[in-house]
Amino acid sequence: MRSMDYADPKKKSNIVGKILMAATLTAMCILMLKQSPNFSSPSHFSHHEPGVVHVLVTGGAGYIGSHATLRLLKDSYRVTVVDNLSRGNLGAIKVLQQLFPEPGRLQFIYADLGDAKAVHKIFSENAFDAVMHFAAVAYVGESTLDPLKYYHNITSNTLVVLEAMAAHGVKTLIYSSTCATYGEPEKMPITEVTPQLPINPYGKAKKMAEDIILDFHKNSDMAVMILRYFNVIGSEPEGRLGEAPRPELREHGRISGACFDAARGIISGLKVRGTDYKTPDGTCIRDYIDVTDLVDAHVKALEKAKPRHVGIYNVGTGRGRSVKEFVEACKKATGVPIKVDFLPRRPGDYAEVYSDPTKIRNELNWTAKHTDLQKSLQIAWRWQKVHLNGYGTPQVMSA
Ligand SMILES: NC(=O)c1ccc[n+]([C@@H]2O[C@H](COP(=O)([O-])OP(=O)(O)OC[C@H]3O[C@@H](n4cnc5c(N)ncnc54)[C@H](O)[C@@H]3O)[C@@H](O)[C@H]2O)c1
Ligand SMILES: *[C@@H]1O[C@H](CO)[C@@H](O)[C@H](O)[C@H]1NC(C)=O
Ligand SMILES: *[C@@H]1O[C@H](CO)[C@@H](O)[C@H](O)[C@H]1NC(C)=O
Ligand SMILES: *[C@@H]1O[C@H](CO)[C@@H](O)[C@H](O)[C@H]1NC(C)=O
């Protein structure tokens, strides 16, 4: 079992659950093996090949990770995705495998990054040149309800990945961080030297992971790029991938998800919380970055990563958009007259957050190109409309 691998499920008292889980995983494993053209030639992944850069993408079945994988494959990288599908979608992996069926292009490994033994085994059996570490749990609201899940799945798992990289001599890391590590800065826009004072477990867990990476880096010859994303929206323009979070995460969801759910009629409308902020229209201001631009920043970061060097970059448009503007763009993009309720403020929200993207433009020659909110939402909506079930059984919206 080379191209598929899975970790022992965590100790659970429920035997029946365990058996069911094992059966499901075995079935899935067989299914994937049957469909995986790579299975017959694992050597592509286990040896370095001149001219081929092999990237480990953790969390590659998730929203951003799957988009990054597509871009890397298009740019002729070799990709191994590791994901435990706790939040990602096997359907996204299938789409990618169908697009790049040639041997040695894409490999999927089912494993939990919390399982250090499994991770070390993956690193010993594969010859990675670089790691893009996306895997994480990523909802601010959930992080305040279940902080340990965040410190475990973000901070502790990053440590596991770093230890495996050190042990197996993998020298380039591109790390997914977030503007949530800045907390509530007094001065806008946010630059990379704005003090990091995170105010929720999500931001704190990411900040701690950054600190671990930076400390480790001081005495190593690793090339590190830390990208702090602002609010990610959109999907791939050709409509093959989209954002499909688990239904149970909807309540913690992000504004674009809520907008699409409202347009679909799953929820009765949008609730805008807070209209008395000190902003031009009274609603909160955020910086929305299109996922296509975001993955472009990752590829540029990978190309420019240098041994013994750390690059830390904000990835945003540099332009703040109010929630009211977002809602208007959403109405136009979906063509649905979404009902909007204006409610009092929600505790913990800050008025204004937007990036100063000067550093990444100067050093990586990257700028956001997909900055038309309505267009980004329109592209994402096109995918949502024909994937009402996410990556599950196809279901198309009528009318
Ligand atoms: N979406 C945003 O707006 C945003 C903003 C800033 C930063 N980020 C960061 O970007 C990264 C990707 O976010 P996303 O929006 O694509 O989230 P996502 O939930 O869609 O993807 C995360 C993926 O990681 C996998 N995963 C989680 N824990 C794992 C584990 N222990 N072992 C193996 N796989 C595991 C999940 O199954 C999922 O496929 C995260 O690190 C997140 O913190 C996202
Ligand atoms: C995914 O990993 C987490 C640990 O980070 C684990 O608790 C969870 O059970 C795993 N999910 C699956 C489906 O294996
Ligand atoms: C890690 O996150 C997954 C969900 O993505 C969850 O099932 C698991 O319990 C978390 N692990 C821990 C140790 O909290
Ligand atoms: C910067 O990127 C643009 C495309 O966005 C390209 O035309 C230009 O040549 C690049 N400049 C450098 C110095 O690489």
Automatic annotation (TrEMBL):
Pathways per UniProt: Carbohydrate metabolism; galactose metabolism
> What would you give as a GO molecular function for this chain, any one?
UDP-glucose 4-epimerase activity
Task: Work out whether the entry's keyword set contains Ubl conjugation.
Answer: no
InterPro entries, alphabetized: NAD(P)-bd_dom, NAD(P)-bd_dom_sf, UDP_G4E
> Keywords, A to Z?
Carbohydrate metabolism, Isomerase, Membrane, NAD, Transmembrane, Transmembrane helix
Q: What class of enzyme is it?
A: isomerase
Q: What is its EC number?
A: 5.1.3.-
- Which CDD domains does the record match to this protein? UDP_G4E_1_SDR_e
Does the keyword Oxidoreductase feature in the UniProt annotation? no
User: Which Pfam families does the entry link to?
Assistant: GDP_Man_Dehyd
Where in the numbering of this chain does the NAD(P)-binding domain appear? 56-370
Listed cofactors: NAD(+)
Instruction: Give TM segment ranges.
Output: 15-33
- PANTHER family hit by this protein: UDP-ARABINOSE 4-EPIMERASE 1, UDP-GLUCOSE 4-EPIMERASE
Its family remark reads: Belongs to the NAD(P)-dependent epimerase/dehydratase family.
Instruction: Please state what the protein is called.
Output: UDP-glucose 4-epimerase
